[in-house]
Amino acid sequence: MSQNCIAKIRSNYARLSEKEKKIADYILNDPEKIIHGTINEVAEELNVADATVFRFCKRIGFKGYQAMKIALASEFINSTQQLDVDMEITDEDDEKTIAEKVFKSNIITLENTSQILDMSSIQKAVNIILHANRVEFYGTGGSAVIAMDAYHKFIRTGIKVFAFIDSHFQLMSASQLTDKDVAVVISHSGTNKDTLNILKTAKQNGAKTIAITGYPKSPISQHADVSLYTSSAETQFRSEALSSRIAQLSLIDAIYVNLRVLNKEAAQQSLRKIRNTISETRM
Question: Are residues 74 and 157 in the same domain?
């Protein structure tokens, strides 16, 4: 599901204003500057208003600067690192080489995701969860495992959290949410019908929604109140969705640690209860 940022810029170039063409040239000449820069930095360097940069992003078909930045990063990654022969696993690789390449791929996924993090979205997600009465994590297939991992972490924060593996249970649970609750939906593609239905059900009941996905223009991203994005590359033996798991887990870790810091007393009390109870199961 490519966003084709560079292609969009080139196809719209003739219809852009002079200031927008200035931004387009800036991106085409050095895409990495956009990937590593903020909207304020770009506007300042080009001597244009932030609003002009934002309008440019909308003009070429993106929701905003962050969405364009993520698409550009993904396109840049695909055109460089996916062509890196050293990263590709071959039939001739031994166990050690394969293990090293998998670790290297995970490191790159984390680095790329950290580069496209929108800290304002992280702050919004943390604030929404911090003040929620109840938080539920949703995901189907491989994303269900990520949702359960999130539950395993967040139960230590002192916040009421829930997660279910079965999609029907998830849907039923989403139907019981209120405007005091939060639904966190996880879907790499952002197009899973079951997960989208769960998100819409949660919103219909007034719940705040947070999405963790790989695509800013996906249906789930478009419907969520706050969207957090991962960036991952596909290889011959490993799909893009599988590569994204480490980034999804790290995003959840970042939110969890923020909440532990902000909700320190309740989190410590919850953690003590958990440790005391679990200690009774050990020999």
Answer: no
96 found inside a domain: no
* Residues 265, 271: Cα–Cα separation, whole Å: 10
Q: What is the per-residue DSSP string for 7-58?
A: HHHHHHGGGS-HHHHHHHHHHHH-HHHHHH--HHHHHHHHT--HHHHHHHHH
What is the token pair recorded at 196?
């989208």
Partnered with residue 213 across adjacent β-strands are: 229
Model pTM? 0.72
Q: Domain with 208 in it: what CATH number?
A: 3.40.50.10490
Look up residue 248 and give its two tokens.
């999804």
Give residue 280's pLDDT band: very low, low, confident or very high (50, 70, 90). confident
Q: Tell which of 49, 80, 111 closes a domain.
A: 80
Task: Determine which of 69-83, 129-143, 255-269 has the lowest per-residue pLDDT on average.
Answer: 69-83
